[in-house]
Design brief:
The chain has 8 helices and 5 strands. With 188 residues, the protein is an alpha/beta fold.
């Protein structure tokens, strides 16, 4: 980890909230970032089974920052395991904008059981209210969990132009990058 950045950072926004952009930004700030890969799918299944495995612990030791699934689902356990960590909740400008994005995403991707385990449905078109309910509940649970600890949670909405200034200040970076904030996969 960059010596100026002393605390682990967990991106705990649900998918399609700017998780890849957050990961790219944290990487640019010097963090070793764990992004979505086959382990994310495996760990999501273990989350559903209410298991926190040794493999998850090894991944926590190997990286400084984390984004995308399964980490948003585990924010309470991560807060207990890593009491000095910082948390970034990426959100969309509105739940409806998030829904539109995840509908397009899932339409392009093959059916994955993780979507069913997280949202209660494979189809965010037919079951939009289930998806919206999960999104809203997640944002409410996260903000309530950290409500009495200012400085522990950053709520970041890239749709509103938030980016480097907020993130760099939050993690204690020595300087704010001058290049444009990454916008990967945030469409609509």
């Amino acid at each position: 980890m960059n010596p100026a950045l002393k605390r682990k950072v967990f991106g705990i926004g649900l998918n399609k909230t700017g998780t890849k952009s957050l990961g790219a930004a944290l990487s640019a700030l010097g963090y070793r970032v764990c992004s979505w890969d086959w382990r994310g799918a495996e760990f999501t299944m273990q989350w559903h089974e209410k298991r926190f495995t040794r493999d998850m612990g090894r991944v926590l030791e190997a990286y400084d920052a984390f984004e995308d699934l399964p980490w948003p689902l585990l924010f309470e356990q991560l807060d207990q395991r890593e009491p000095d960590a910082l948390f970034v909740l990426t959100v969309r400008e509105s739940p409806e904008r998030w829904l539109s994005s995840i509908q397009r995403h899932i339409a392009r991707e093959p059916t994955w059981v993780g979507h069913y385990l997280i949202y209660g449905s494979y189809d965010p078109g037919t079951d939009a209210e289930l998806y919206l309910s999960m999104y809203r509940r997640h944002v409410e649970r996260v903000t309530a969990h950290f409500a009495d600890r200012p400085g522990k949670l950053l709520v970041l909405c890239m749709d509103r132009g938030e980016g480097w200034a907020e993130l760099a200040h939050f993690v204690g970076a020595r300087r704010v990058p001058t290049r444009p904030f990454p916008h990967l996969g945030l469409h609509g």
